[in-house]
Model the fold of this input.
Amino acid sequence: MTRAAVALVCAAVVGALGVGEGAEPVDGAIARGVSSLAGRQQADGSWEAHVGLTAVAVLALLQPSADPSPEGRAATARGLAYLERWVRPDGGIYQEDIRHYTTAVALLAFVASGDPRYRDRIRAAQAYLVRLQASEANGFAPSDPLFGGTLVDRNKANLDATFFAMRALAESGLGAGHPYWARAVRFVSRCQNLRTSNDQPWAAEDGGFVFAPGFSFAGGTTSYGTMTYAGLSAYRDAALPRDDPRVQAALAWISERFTAEENPGLGQQTLFHSFFYMSHTLRRWSVDTLTDASGRARSWRRELAAGLLARQQADGAWTNTEDPRWLESRPVLATSFAVRALKESLARTP
Done:
C-alpha cells in the first residue's frame, strides 16, 4: 500500500475508531498479529534463531499484559525457554552481536514473565548492564560526552542502547538511589537539544533528542521522533518530575510534531520502532491528548491505532519495505513492535 493510500485509509478509520478498553477493531488486529508471530516461531522456540528478535517477540506477547490466547501463551513459553539457553556466566544474555541490546530485552522478557525461577538470572543480567555503563570504573570522566551512556563498544554509547538498558534496569528494580541513575541522566541530557541542561556546544534549543551526543541519523544534530520518545522514557525511568524543564521541552517537541504517519524527522525510517516508542512512552507519562503546532487536540491512541490498522497485511503481519537499515522489512520485528504499540494504545495509564 502506498503512503497516499495509507493516509486515506487512516483518515477513514480514525473517524470511526473508538479506541479504549475492548475496542473490537484493535483487539482483532492484535489477535491477527499474535497469530502471525506464533506462526513464524521456529521449532527451537526462537524467532529467526536470534536472541534479540526472540525477546522482542516475547515482550509483544507479554506487555503491557500477557496475551490470553492459547497460541500466544504457548509461543511465550517456548520463547522464554529459548532465551534461557543464552544466559552467560557473566550475566549477559547474548549470542555474539549487540550484547547490550539482547541482554536488555531478554531481561525485560524475564521480568515481564513474572516467573520466580528467573530471579537469579534477572539479578545477574542487571549487574551486567550496570557494568556496561560508561562510568569512572570504565575509564570515563564526568566531563566525557559519553559518560553515563550504555557502551555498545569500548568507546561508543548511544541513546537507543541507553533507553533499553534503563528500561530493563527500572523494570527489574534497580534501586532509585543507585549511582547508575544520576550518571545515566547526565548522558541522556547530553543527547537533548536543550542548551539550559546540555553542556555540549552543539546543542540547540528545540527540546528534541539525537542518537548520540553530536550525532543524529536525521543529519547533523537534528532532533527526531524515536530518540525523543526514548529520551522522554529515560527521564521517566530516572524519576524526573513532570515539571522538570527537560521533560516539558521533550513533551512540547512531541506535541508540536505529532503524526502517526511517519517518524518525525526520519520519515518512514524506523517507523514501527517509532510507533512502539511513542505509545509506550506517552502511556507511561499519562499523556492521552497532544496539542499540535496548530493548536488542535490530537488523540495519539486513536490516530496510532488507525495508522497501524491501515498498514496491517492480509496475513496479520506488518512490514516496512522502506527501512532496510533497521530491519523493519523483517515481519517479526515490525509485527512485534506493531502488536506492542496497539496493546499500549488500549492499556490504561499507570
Observations:
- Residues 1-22 have pLDDT under 50 and may be disordered.
- The beta strands are 150-153, 156-158, 289-291, 297-299.
- The longest strand covers residues 150-153.
- The chain is about 50% helix and 5% strand.
